[in-house]
Design goal:
Elements: H1 16-23, H2 40-51, H3 74-78, H4 101-107, H5 124-135, E1 151-155, E2 161-162, E3 168-173, E4 187-191, E5 203-205, E6 209-211, E7 219-223, E8 232-238, E9 273-279, H6 287-299, H7 317-324, H8 347-352, H9 368-379
């Protein structure tokens, strides 16, 4: 399956220009009405729900950056949770708006991608209200204490089909967790290895860490950074029965049965939560597919003919392959245009990503997903 087909759709924190195009304009959203103040419920109703948790953006089973901003999920997915775009920052760092990736995205100061929402910047007064909520501790005024504790949100969502491996699993709960009960004995991720569980060949995945974020005792994070997840079916288990169980601060065991969607439970304390997701990375593009989808439409208008720029003819697959792979670049003869197995040291990638300006093609930088396809071809040996 070609990843190019989906490269220009949806809201992706890593591809701002496409998101803006998908929203069909650059007019900023109108400011919220009267009564908007620095509490989570008002921010959810006036900002996240109308501007972020929209179709093809931060909603549904497989939202961009695994960030679902629908009302049932947003608090658990934001507060104290590491950003996928820049893992050095939390999405919302309670008490520290300047160190909150959410604020960086809203104000357009994030180091690696564009401003959100893609339809246009929020009014600064709205952002200042969100800043104030974070400064005040990023509390959840919508929380309703229930007995027993239940799973209220999960990312990846139950039944999700993913094309890229998650870097973390975030479970949200409707009561404060007893942090001492959230560990590798109660928060479990398994790979089926064959699409079937409980047949003797399941493989447990070790987390880099399992934690309850400071400032958000209603979320639990299974950190997958460094884990190599193969294409497979995976099962997330949060245990509410047996010798080791997840409990709330009132010593209630998890009511975990996943019966009819989230929140979990059958109304009785004690019961395991079990959810599955699948990972199936898109097939890598062949060189001929790259020629047909990238070089021919985007490059051959310039790089063709008897005397193409730099002597590089990209008008057909034979000429392109011969002129790229293991061929020294004209711009820097010490660097090959394409060095097999080394995309970072390939002049083609440097020009496409503008680390060596000017960017190519001159009409504008290609979508990063498209460049990533070319990177993958190079890393896989740049074969034809």
């Amino acid at each position: 399956m070609l990843t190019l087909a989906g490269a220009t759709a949806g809201c992706d924190v890593q591809s701002f220009d496409d998101a803006a195009a998908a929203f069909g304009g650059t007019n900023p959203p109108p400011p919220p009405g009267s009564g908007f103040n620095a509490v989570f419920s008002a921010i959810q109703g006036n900002v996240f729900t109308p501007n972020c948790a929209t179709a093809n953006c931060h909603s549904g089973a497989n939202p961009p950056a695994s960030l679902n901003l629908e009302a049932a999920s947003s608090y658990a997915m934001l507060v104290g949770i590491a950003s996928v775009g820049d893992s050095g920052f939390q999405r919302v760092n309670p008490g520290n708006p300047a160190l909150s990736y959410l604020i960086q995205k809203l104000e357009g100061t994030a180091s690696n991608s564009g401003q959100m929402p893609p339809a246009g910047a929020l009014d600064q007064s709205v952002i200042d209200t969100i800043r104030q909520w974070i400064s005040d501790g990023a509390l959840d005024d919508t929380a309703v204490v229930t007995t027993p504790i239940r799973v209220s949100s999960l990312s990846p969502a139950p039944g999700a089909s993913l094309s890229t491996a998650p870097t973390q699993i975030v479970a949200g709960f409707d009561a404060d967790l007893d942090t001492s009960t959230v560990n590798a004995l109660t928060y479990i991720l398994e790979a089926s290895t064959d699409g079937v569980f409980d047949n003797g060949d399941d493989m447990q995945i070790n987390a880099l860490s399992i934690s309850v974020p400071l400032g958000n005792p209603r979320s639990a994070v299974f950190d997958l950074n460094g884990a190599m997840l193969a294409d497979d079916t995976y099962r997330i288990q949060l245990l509410g029965s047996g010798a080791n169980v997840i409990m709330d601060t009132n010593a209630n065991a998890l009511d975990g049965e996943l019966i009819a969607g989230l929140p979990s439970g059958n109304g009785t304390a004690g019961g395991d939560f079990s959810s599955q997701f699948t990972l199936m990375a898109p097939a890598a593009l062949t060189f001929d597919e790259i020629q047909a989808n990238v070089f021919t439409p985007s490059c051959s208008g310039c790089h063709a003919g008897a005397n193409p720029p730099g002597g590089l003819d990209l008008s057909n697959a034979n000429a392109s392959f011969a002129g790229l792979v293991n061929v020294a670049s004209v711009g820097n003869p010490m660097i090959d245009r394409v060095e097999p197995n080394n995309a970072n040291n390939s002049y083609l990638i440097m020009r496409m990503e503008a680390t060596v300006p000017p960017v190519m093609p001159p009409s504008g930088m290609l979508n990063q997903a498209v460049i990533n396809d070319i990177r993958t071809w190079i890393q896989n040996g740049a074969v034809r």
